[in-house]
């Protein structure tokens, strides 16, 4: 295999002429770098650029440079702080919830028993459903008039609850829907991590007389830390950027109580046509996501939670 690769590399060099390894690497990476810049760097730079201007599609005048005024307005906007508080609350509840449920599902899927493959197949269903469709399903579940949950409450002799019209109940309904949707993705990541743990370690621990809890605490959990950190990074970033499920269930209501920062950005830039201010909010969300990711990556590098 090594000889074949060397021949292919030599043939490529002969066609390109006398070229060093550094130059060869540069030309091979150039297309991917240009593509990455086109689909990632340029949109981010464009949003940052627009955030420094006053751009309203309702106005007949063109963009007006205002510097950091949009950011100053965002820091004074009570709607922004309300959306930030709800978004952070959603993260605090759904990220550990999805991680816990996903860990249980991953352990069940990794067990050597007859239900292993049905559990693995069941993990794919929530993960494969679109986010907005999942939100619509749970909006029907918690509907006041014909929802499944209220129908069960009526059958049990309790009064129906307006889950999606009361702020606290709406928050709970969104958390349940989000955990159900995202726990399967977490479980798939953790299952991949469990598959990398050598079975010989479990056999050695059993020979030493360790209990199941001791095996999990001293063998499984420490070796699963990298997969846990990867799952935390993806789940936290997606929680900070939550849009589809809350929007499909409550559209940010009632009284904008369940409005996430992403919903506020969409409302500002799309509905109110204030592109400049919406871009500033998007940059703030981007910075928040990158800050959280850097903390997790530092922990992942150190190998600790």
Can you describe this structure?
The chain has helices at residues 2-16, 21-51, 69-76, 78-110, 116-128, 131-141, 148-155, 167-195, 199-207, 212-223, 225-240, 244-250, 261-271, 275-302; strands at residues 53-54, 64-65. It has 14 helices and 2 strands; from the N terminus they run ααββαααααααααααα. Helix 3 (69-76) crosses helix 14 (275-302), helix 4 packs across helix 8 and helix 8 (167-195) runs antiparallel to helix 12. The chain is flat. The protein has a two-stranded antiparallel sheet with strand order 1-2. By secondary structure, the chain is an all-alpha fold.
Break the fold down into its secondary structure elements and pairings.
Layout: H1 2-16, H2 21-51, E1 53-54, E2 64-65, H3 69-76, H4 78-110, H5 116-128, H6 131-141, H7 148-155, H8 167-195, H9 199-207, H10 212-223, H11 225-240, H12 244-250, H13 261-271, H14 275-302
Antiparallel strand pairs: 1-2
